[in-house]
Design a protein that fits this description.
This protein is 11% helix and 27% strand. With 198 residues, it is α+β, with helices and mostly antiparallel strands. The N terminus is likely disordered.
């Protein structure tokens, strides 16, 4: 009887304790590319056929995509897009100049067997009304999807209209630490971010 009782009572609470919370979703924003660039690899700092590399501080951005039980999600598509060093997106609706034509602005990675992805980009910068951020969209073969934004620890958050509707707990979970990375370009930074899909 005791064995039956323990068997009945223990599996669900133990399972519930190990479940991860999904990464908070955030708006896609108005600047998701209306036309995807022909060069959409994971190195956003060099555009194919363009002699000049991107301006800005190099950021080696990597992470993993997990499902809620903590297992890695292999074969997920991770899209990344962000503005250039002048605060401009490569989007038909983002008018104005200057614009950094050496910055790809958008890239796509596919997670490996351990759920890992990696991009080479620039440290995001602020632009009118927004603090520095990186946009991410994750899709799995099974149809799960998540769109969110990643922020940099230490950046001021006041006055940002997206974060105004984001709880302090969600802000913390969407914030990434960055640090100098030895052996890379002078001043280069690295940061990692874990994504839990719903």
């Amino acid at each position: 009887m005791l064995g039956y009782a323990l068997g009945f009572l223990s599996p669900w609470p133990l399972c519930a304790q190990t479940m991860l919370r999904p990464t908070p979703a955030q708006t896609e924003g108005p600047f998701y590319p209306t036309k995807l660039p022909s060069d959409r690899d994971t190195d956003l700092t060099q555009v194919a056929g363009h002699s000049q590399p991107a301006q800005g501080t190099r950021l080696y951005f990597s992470g993993r995509v997990l499902v809620r039980d903590g297992s890695p999600q292999a074969g997920a598509t991770v899209e990344l897009w962000q503005c250039d060093v002048f605060g401009r997106y490569h989007h038909a609706g983002d008018y104005g100049s200057p614009r950094d034509d050496g910055f790809q602005g958008y890239g796509v990675a596919t997670t490996d067997g351990e759920g890992r992805f990696a991009f080479k980009t620039i440290r995001p910068v602020a632009y009118s009304g927004r603090i520095p951020h990186i946009h991410l969209k994750v899709r799995t073969a099974a149809g799960a999807a998540l769109t969110t934004q990643v922020y940099i620890a230490g950046d001021a958050t006041g006055g940002d209209p997206v974060l105004a509707f984001t709880s302090a707990e969600a802000r913390k979970r969407l914030t990434m630490e960055v640090a100098p990375t030895p052996g890379r370009e002078a001043g280069a930074l690295a940061g990692t971010f874990e994504i839990v899909i719903p």
